[in-house]
Amino acid sequence: MIFERGLKNTLEIYKKWWAGELDRPIIPIVLTYDETGKKPRNPYEGQKSFGNPTISPEEFINGVDYELNRTEFLGDAYPFLNMMCSGPGIVAAFLGADVILNNGNIWFQPKEALPINKLHFVYCDNNYWLNRTKAVLIEANKRWGNSVIVGMPDLGGVLDILATFRGSQNLLLDLYDSPNEVIRVVNEIKELWHRYYSELSEFTTPDFYTNWSGILSETYTYMLQCDLCYMFSTDMFNQFVKDELRETCEFLGRGCYHLDGVGQIPHLESLMEINKMKLIQWVPGDGSYDSNDWLGVNSKVISAGKHLQIMDYDFSQLDKLISHFGRGKNVAVYQVNLPANQRARAFDILSRYNFY
Prior knowledge:
Elements: H1 7-18, E1 28-32, H2 47-50, H3 57-68, E2 71-75, E3 80-81, H4 91-94, E4 98-102, E5 105-109, H5 128-144, E6 149-150, H6 158-166, H7 168-177, H8 179-201, E7 222-224, H9 234-240, H10 242-252, E8 255-260, H11 268-272, E9 277-283, H12 295-303, E10 307-310, H13 316-325, E11 331-333, E12 336-339, H14 343-352
Parallel strand pairs: 1-12, 3-6, 7-8, 8-9, 9-10, 10-11
Antiparallel strand pairs: 1-2, 4-5
Helix pairs in contact: 3-5, 6-7, 6-8, 7-8
């Protein structure tokens, strides 16, 4: 594991970036070297490993450790256990949904299909998946201390968690047929979401907070989302989503939002009205990352005083932003993964954006 800057120095960079004092973009680049040394008995396979109850937390971390030790962290990258491996929206499992492993991916489904007025959610301290998650985080901190950042698991968005239990189509009908019941259940899940975040934060790396986005913070932060609202009108978004997001951003202090797909663009204005919503992560959708000019969306976020994270594989969107604003301030690029034989290219990229 090669990481020369050190986590404290890296955190200072991110602090400056959050404060608007860094005149360059955040660009993390990770190089992966060929496999070396003795492989662990259970190699790390992301969700497939986390979702396999026969793999102990210690064996799970052994697999991650092996992968970290053939990795070099350049630019604004840092050693990181990305807990996306917990599956997309693991709070559903904490609330009693079954965990299904399918082709190496984790999915969640309810034990029983219940109508919206029969759904009630409460905290359960003996939930297997909650305790497995804690055990993995504890083992990670025991193994690495402050040399590797342990991120927050992929908790999921509140409406998306509810959709796990109702099904997307049924939930869309509920919005019309039983709006008060939807809001009641949303509030139940929201309060539990806050509790899970606080509780799990006790087991992540102290004083270093991050999530699957990789954006590092010295204070609570999280990449919030509502994939279901791709199918919402703006009025429905404001009625069923906006208040929950506002309250969760107040709880966090530094909220972020995963704006996923062109169908969510109509909600951007509402999102930017949330004071504690500090960052928008814009993801145009499969096949659309660099095929279109997204300067209008990206510049709207920056002009509103928010931070922006983009998935920009050829840096074309970043270059357009820099050309438009004269700098890459308040912009972060999602982690760039390269093989070790492209190390020279990595340094060329970093030099191009004034890292040196």
